[in-house]
Amino acid sequence: MNIKLYSAWYCPFAQRTWIALEMLGLDYTYIEIDPYDKTEHWMEISRGKGQVPVVEFSDGKANRVRVPDSIRSLEFLNDLAAGQFWNNAPTLRADQRYWLDHINGWIVPQFYRFLKAPVGSAQSQESRTALSEGLASLETATVGRGSAIDAKHPGMLDVALFPFAYRMNLLLPYYKSFRPLAHASSLGDWFGEMCRSEDVRATSAQVEYYDDQLLQFYEPYAAGGGQEDVTTIAN
Ligand SMILES: N[C@@H](CCC(=O)N[C@@H](CS)C(=O)NCC(=O)O)C(=O)O
């Protein structure tokens, strides 16, 4: 079995897939790529999407596939390893899916909107409130329940949210003087525990001065630039 992860060290979407590979205990080769450089090779690997992550799989026989997209690759890897990322009960799984859409369609875009908005602007106020409310509803509805956020038994939602929670906690206090994850809260506890996970730490260990490098990478975003499609609200 051969698994390759095409990733970029700074990318939160790719970090989801990377954390999953570690948590599921799969052997893989990490390949660093610049997704913004649309070479013919990269467009072929990414099946025309041009975005990381992409998981490339081959079992050495007839079964091979390239899976672009963070959520689709998480699903694939979880299937491959017969993992426990989804709850087995249909009702709880449906609820997990609901909150996964909430993370992708609301929390993630509001985070980027807030990061990009000029301090003091209407968009800044609006996205800050939307982000805080989005996190609060996730926390109230899911922490401690079988459907969701649980750092002791990480699943789909923990893996999907963590890379963004990490960036929120690092970038927003620095660039926007705002700390969205309160320390004394269930989400704060969840975050602390996820940060201590060996599987999570394995995905930042390769880069020296990781936090400083991330702060530098996101400087253009904090000034209103960077990738645009990440701000699209989907629900
Ligand atoms: N919806 C995609 C988003 C992935 C994404 O936006 N990746 C960024 C890097 S963080 C990328 O590859 N950008 C290159 C581009 O858009 O040209 C996913 O969940 O995997």
UniProtKB/TrEMBL annotation:
TM helices/strands, residue ranges: none
Family annotation (CDD domains): GST_C_family (cd00299), GST_N_family (cd00570)
Presence of the UniProt keyword Transferase in the record: yes
Keywords assigned: Transferase
One MF annotation (Gene Ontology) recorded for this entry: transferase activity
Residue stretches making up the GST N-terminal domain: 1-85
Coiled-coil ranges (or none): none
GO cellular component: cytoplasm
Record carries keyword Transferase: yes
PANTHER family in alphabetical order: GLUTATHIONE S-TRANSFERASE OMEGA, PTHR43968
Name by which UniProt lists this protein: Glutathione S-transferase
Organism: Candidatus Rhodobacter oscarellae
